[in-house]
Amino acid sequence: MTTRTDEFEELRPLLFSIAYRILGSVTEAEDAVQESWLRYQAYPGEPAEPKAFLSAVVTRISIDVLRSARVRREAYVGRWFPEPLLTDPYQDPERSAELADSLSTAALLLLERLSPLERAVFVLRDVFAFDFPEIAAAVERSEAACRQLAVRARRHMDEGRPRFAADRAEREHLAERFFDAFREGDVDGLRDLLAADAQLVGDSGGKAPLWGNGIFGAANVARALTSLSEPFTRIGGVFEPHEVNGQPGAIFRDRDGKVVNTWTLDIADGRIQTIRAVLNPDKLGHVGPVADAWAVIRETNRARTAPPLPS
């Protein structure tokens, strides 16, 4: 006999995936899912459809959290990026393209432009294909209002998407070449893979070292990357190419295996457009034990000025 616990655990991946796309935060999404469980436990009746009921509950909680979070993000130090997600727990072969696209850092940043209601409606409709009656019940608006919200949200999202995004195979091939060139310190190879107006930007929240507002232009980014790779490796640092938010990326670790930062690569038009680094330690704890990034950069800088090791 199916219990509420069984029903909830079966739906947990979906609930987390909805909450994460609305909030852009792993920790806040996990909290929203946990609060949904508590409300489900306390609900006196028997929902006719647990999926619709719990999806509505987690959506409403996420909307409330997002409204509060937007105030905090306005006072955030520097650029705000979503917390990196290594694996989406929810899989649906029929929605795989929509799920992957909506998970990318670029898409989540576009979602930040929407109002909380627009964001929730877009996620439920365009990503998870909920019907409008279900969406209306979840956000407590009329079906007509939800249709209008969906149209506005879709228009804002379409305006910000790259015109010629790469397919998955092309992204993976380009990322492999990029990380090979980075590992080898090949400045010319890196420059050839970068868009002319490429940028290297980061989110430290004021709690980790950062390169000002960013580094811009293919030549500048290539030089910055090659100046980093060799000394970081020399002090025992490693980087692991890894899918992050459904896109090519990497996890950087110190010699003890602690997480220094994560990267995601935005790829379009056959070139790497943007490298986004998350360095804020508050956003990395779910990836693994977090390194002291200040100590790592100090040691890396010392290695950069030290004479090369004998071959």
From TrEMBL:
SUPFAM superfamilies: NTF2-like (SSF54427), Sigma2 domain of RNA polymerase sigma factors (SSF88946), Sigma3 and sigma4 domains of RNA polymerase sigma factors (SSF88659). Keywords: Sigma factor, Transcription, Transcription regulation. GO terms for molecular function: DNA binding; sigma factor activity. Residues 8-70 form the RNA polymerase sigma-70 region domain. Gene3D superfamilies: 1.10.1740.10, 3.10.450.50, Winged helix-like DNA-binding domain superfamily/Winged helix DNA-binding domain. Residues 108-157 form the RNA polymerase sigma factor 70 region 4 type domain. The keyword Heme does not apply. Signal peptide: none annotated. InterPro entries: ECF_Sigma-70_Domain, NTF2-like_dom_sf, RNA_pol_sigma-70_dom, RNA_pol_sigma-70_ECF, RNA_pol_sigma70_r2, RNA_pol_sigma70_r4_t2, RNA_pol_sigma_r2, RNA_pol_sigma_r3/r4-like. Pfam families: Sigma70_r2 (PF04542), Sigma70_r4_2 (PF08281). GO terms for biological process: DNA-templated transcription initiation. Belongs to the sigma-70 factor family. ECF subfamily. Interacts transiently with the RNA polymerase catalytic core formed by RpoA, RpoB, RpoC and RpoZ (2 alpha, 1 beta, 1 beta' and 1 omega subunit) to form the RNA polymerase holoenzyme that can initiate transcription. This is RNA polymerase sigma-70 factor (ECF subfamily). It comes from Asanoa ferruginea.
